[in-house]
């Protein structure tokens, strides 16, 4: 984005805004019951996400940058993610689906007017480089991924998208050695390579790491199945105390959406049952499961610094080229509703030769979500700051459901260690002896 002139940048923003809205409307192209119902206590009704992205756009683009008076001030509280927990949202007087669509399209029309007249070269950090538009674009794509997780939980058939994915390749050497040394973690943002980077990705800082080994590919279903069949879920040796408690209390014995039928494991994917494909990266595991598997395998989860260093210091592991929808480097943007088999993207390898860092599955890391040294909150505390601490684990790299404009090697995602409805898997690492 950084190199486009002001006009090219505005055109690109307008195109991306149109594309993300098309995506949100496609995921909510369902009958009202489907949209207002709560499919899981963990998730909002889909109609909440839909109006919330419009409300967020109104707050940031129309009010903050455009100086426009609130369109419907009486609904703001309903779409404030901090006011009511997700489980209480269905009982709120939310806009119904037709009203929600009308509201967000009204907002969007005015947003395009603001885009037309705003000076994207102004020094103000919300305007500069189109930051505020990057903020709302990424936000809507993140909610689209959340909506996909809700749809998967609903077990309603119809959203399986069986796009073509390249075949897998076995790894000649399943681990990659990363030598000891200093690397740059995070990004400068602003005029740096990632002008739309979030506050939590900044500032860029130098960090020394001892040498380590990291898996070339994410852990596959086939590998994970060995842990399951070896009694991994019945052996407290592999689990942290809180993880073991979670397993026992919930009777967990396999990843979410898996069921056993005799010797064969099946999974439900968007309402359709199919045998668990052994070559595909495992997904729908909690941080506790990832951590237990790693211990069983004689390894550990990588820290987020180790994960990021393995990317080789570029915007994407393969370089600066935008992943777009060409699909040569990574499985992103819901091309297919599943991760690609391990080894599917040799061209997407990092300079160290680590593959599938971007796309396929979010990867749990060992790290708590904490600010980088020199962190400065921008533009608001409720995006990152209120989540810092020893409560959320960091995930990296995006999933098959993540849009290319909402992921890069510095991007940080986070969730509670018990969460499994997100499209998350992992890879392992180990320290050098
Ligand atoms: C970064 C995915 C953890 O969904 O809770 C959406 C993104 N922040 N609206 C989330 C977000 C505000 C956030 N995650
Ligand atoms: Fe949000």
Polypeptide structure, described:
This protein has helices spanning 6-27, 32-36, 46-65, 97-117, 131-154, 221-229, 241-250, 287-296, 304-309; strands at residues 175-178, 181-185, 205-209, 212-215, 258-261, 264-269, 272-275, 362-368, 393-396, 413-415, 424-425, 429-431. A 4-stranded mixed beta sheet has the order 10-9-8-11. Strands 1-4-12 form a 3-stranded antiparallel beta sheet. The protein has a 3-stranded antiparallel beta sheet with strand order 5-6-7, with no helix packed on it. It is globular, with a radius of gyration of 21 Å. The chain starts with 5 loop residues before the first helix and ends with a strand. The mean pLDDT is 95. 29% of the residues lie in helices and 12% in strands. The chain is an alpha+beta fold. It is built from 9 helices and 12 strands. Bound molecules: N,N,N-trimethyl-histidine and fe (iii) ion. Fe (iii) ion (FE) binds at residues 52, 56, 81, 139, 143.
Number of strands: 12
Low-confidence stretches: none
Gross morphology = globular
Rg measurement, Å: 21 Å
**Beta-strand percent range:** 5-15%
Q: Figure out the total of helices.
A: 9
Bound molecules: N,N,N-trimethyl-histidine, fe (iii) ion
* Largest sheet report: 4 strands, mixed
| Structural class by helix and strand composition | alpha+beta
User: Widest sheet: strand order?
Assistant: 10-9-8-11
Helix content: 25-40%
Mean pLDDT: 95
Q: Tell me the span between the first and last alpha carbons.
A: 42 Å
What string, H for helix and E for strand, traces the elements in order? HHHHHEEEEHHEEEHHEEEEE
């Amino acid at each position: 984005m950084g190199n486009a002139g002001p006009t090219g940048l505005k055109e690109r923003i307008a195109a991306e805004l149109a594309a993300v809205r098309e995506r949100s409307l496609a995921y909510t192209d369902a009958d009202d019951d489907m949209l207002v119902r709560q499919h899981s206590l963990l998730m909002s009704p889909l109609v909440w996400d839909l109006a919330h992205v419009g409300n967020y756009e109104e707050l940031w683009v129309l009010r903050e940058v455009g100086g426009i008076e609130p369109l419907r001030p009486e609904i703001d509280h309903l779409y404030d993610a901090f006011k009511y927990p997700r489980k209480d949202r269905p009982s709120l007087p939310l806009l119904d689906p037709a009203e929600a669509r009308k509201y967000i399209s009204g907002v969007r029309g005015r947003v395009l007017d603001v885009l037309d007249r705003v000076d994207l070269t102004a020094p103000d950090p919300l305007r500069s480089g189109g930051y505020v538009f990057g903020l709302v674009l990424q936000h809507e794509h993140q909610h689209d991924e959340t909506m996909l997780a809700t749809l998967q939980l609903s077990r309603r058939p119809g959203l399986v998208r069986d796009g073509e994915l390249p075949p897998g390749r076995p790894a000649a050497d399943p681990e990659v050695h990363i030598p000891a040394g200093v690397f740059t973690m995070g990004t400068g943002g602003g005029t740096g390579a990632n002008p739309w980077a979030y506050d939590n990705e900044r500032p860029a800082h130098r960090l020394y790491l001892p040498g380590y080994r990291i898996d070339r590919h994410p852990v596959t279903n086939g590998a994970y199945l060995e842990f399951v069949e070896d009694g991994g879920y019945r052996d407290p040796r592999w689990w942290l105390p809180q993880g073991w408690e979670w397993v026992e209390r919930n009777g967990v014995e396999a990843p979410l959406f898996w069921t056993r039928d005799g010797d064969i494991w099946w999974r439900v994917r968007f309402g359709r049952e199919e045998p668990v494909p052994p070559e595909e990266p495992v997904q729908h595991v909690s941080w506790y499961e990832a951590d237990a598997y790693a211990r069983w395998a004689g390894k550990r989860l990588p820290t987020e610094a180790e994960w990021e260093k393995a990317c080789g210091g570029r915007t994407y592991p393969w370089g600066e080229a935008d992943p777009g929808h060409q699909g040569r480097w990574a499985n992103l943007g819901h091309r297919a509703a599943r991760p690609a088999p391990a080894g599917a993207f040799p061209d997407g390898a990092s300079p160290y030769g680590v593959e599938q860092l971007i796309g396929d599955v979010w990867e749990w890391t060992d790290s708590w979500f904490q600010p980088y040294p020199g962190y400065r909150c921008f533009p608001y505390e409720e995006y990152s700051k209120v989540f810092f601490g020893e409560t959320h684990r960091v995930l990296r790299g995006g999933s098959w459901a993540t849009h290319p404009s909402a992921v890069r090697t510095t991007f940080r995602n986070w969730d509670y260690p018990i969460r499994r409805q997100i499209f998350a898997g992992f890879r392992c690492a180990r320290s050098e002896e």
